[in-house]
Amino acid sequence: xxxxxxxxxxxxxxxxxxxxxxxxxxxxxxxxxxxxxxxxxxxxxxxxxxxxxxxxxxxxxxxxxxxxxxxxxxxxxxxxxxxxxxxxxxxxxxxxxxxxxxxxxxxxxxxxxxxxxxxxxxxxxxxxxxxxxxxxxxxxxxxxxxxxxxxxxxxxxxxxxxxxxxxxxxxxxxxxxxxxxxxxxxxxxxxxxxxxxxxxxxxxxxxxxxxx
Length: 212
Hints:
With 212 residues, the protein is mainly alpha-helical. The chain has helices at residues 3-30, 39-62, 69-89, 94-114, 118-141, 146-157, 164-187, 199-211. It has one domain (3-211). It is globular, with a radius of gyration of 17 Å.
């Protein structure tokens, strides 16, 4: 790794690590759940933010488009912050996710169009629509949260540069984390009607797909 790559990765990790806790606090305020913003949550958010920021920056560098690091880091920050809110409240802040979709969409279009990569722009749109559609079906028939559909749209936007194998890995991660949540729920006395947050599993899957 060259020193330019090292500087870029450090910058992405730092920005993400500082931004995730504040964006999570903002999302919790939008939900009227400011009391859920604990010191532990902020530390976890910052640590995950650093890792996601570094990984998304590396993903942009690997495809040879440094400009792509900006929208990918912004995307990663938003996905992690929304999933943190869901983890502690089982609700996803609508305003935060909607704003993130707009910002990510604009930044991705600019970064990819400047390099002439219109195919990735199209793939991002298709991936967002497909992910959102699947989540809507889960909401309609499997009692998933409607907020998960919004988060899925945001998550899909970051997949324009990915490969088919990365998407398979993402699906595997989502299934494994969801299965672990189900097992844990039953282990602590829950039942089939017990609800658990899907945001963390979705976020993990999308980040894996975008950075693998």
